[in-house]
Amino acid sequence: MRNIVSIKDCMRTFEGDGIPVTRAFPVPGMREVDPFLLFDHFGPINYKPGGASGVPAHPHCGFEAITYLLDGEVEHCDSWGGQATIKAGDVQWMTTGSGLIHSELVTNNFKKSGGIMQGLQIWVNLPKKDKQVKPGYQHIHKDKIPIIKLEEQNINIKILVGEILGQSSSINTYSPVSIFDIQFTKPNEFNLSIPNEQITMVYIINGELKFENANSLAKKGQMVYFDQSADSIHLHSLSQQGSYLVLAGKPLNEPVARHGPFVANTEGEI
User: Fold this and answer.
1) Which of 17, 106, 186, 256 has its CA 20 to 30 A from that of 165?
2) How far separated are the first and last CA of the chain, in Å rounded?
3) Is the pTM of this model over 0.90?
4) What tens digit of pLDDT does each residue of 225-245 get?
5) Nearest-angstrom CA–CA distance, 135 and 173
6) How far is the C-alpha of 156 from the C-alpha of 182, rounded, in Å?
7) Residues 122 and 38 sit within 8 Å (Cβ to Cβ)
8) What are phi and psi of 143, to 5 degrees?
9) Which residues partner with 248 through β-bridges?
10) 197 and 253 in contact (C-beta within 8 Å)?
11) DSSP state for residue 97 in the 8-state scheme
């Protein structure tokens, strides 16, 4: 099993129309975790009717952005024709490539009714050879996300991106990336296979994980960082309801230059 490198609290900040954000990186002392550039847990925030707006049009280039919506409704629209209503449980994968402008505004229904808004946003770097690809958009409805049900262990694995136990997501990526939401409905343990060439992190959406080898606990809002010493990680959930987001990816080992929403390999390219 892989060893724990560290368990870190995430930084609390605000984005957009004042929505609270729990940010694992970039933060002081950690710009990125190759190939991942950003990890944000936005919300939960309970909007009154008429109080929500969302994020107006803004540009991006040079990476891929993933939104996993946990609560609420958002309307995505971009300058390359991508458009979709993202509902709770849905995943969007946006390849910004050579550049696009997009907005993520709340739907009219959500704005009128109000409610809880919450989700995860993740940025994945594009390899140098693919930095200028044509932008693209993939939207996966929650009922199209493969779910592996391990009934004897009271565990469900939602395959947001990548492949596990013979099942795979329909999302196409430019580099090997895996993102799974592993949900426990009772305290239990589980071994997850991940090639040791891929870096691995686990974010605690909800619940508590115990790591016997490190004699430590990881709680809601923390990120767990593993080494690459083996091809599997061990998850021991202590909670009646636990939701743990596994992020794995093969490092690109390329220089990164970033300025706000733009990512390149050199300052000259920026």
Assistant:
1) 186
2) 40
3) yes
4) 999 999 999 999 999 999 999
5) 12
6) 6
7) yes
8) -80, -5
9) 178, 200
10) no
11) T
